[in-house]
Design brief:
mainly alpha, flat, 0% strand, 57 residues
């Protein structure tokens, strides 16, 4: 089993917090794709929507 990383988000600057949360969400999407729980199309749409909503594109 993978070791879960816990970070005290209150210690991060707002931009760092946003980047950290984005990376965690992306990891979840990567896992879903790797286990065929979502299609490549669903993955791309979800990742695109996430990046847009968080201001990364």
């Amino acid at each position: 089993m993978e070791k879960t990383e816990y970070t005290d988000l209150s210690l991060l600057a707002p931009d760092e917090r946003k980047a950290y949360l984005f990376s965690r969400q992306k990891e979840l999407l990567d896992t879903l794709l790797a286990h065929n729980a979502v299609t490549a199309e669903q993955y791309e749409k979800s990742l695109s929507d996430l990046a847009r909503k968080m201001g990364f594109c």
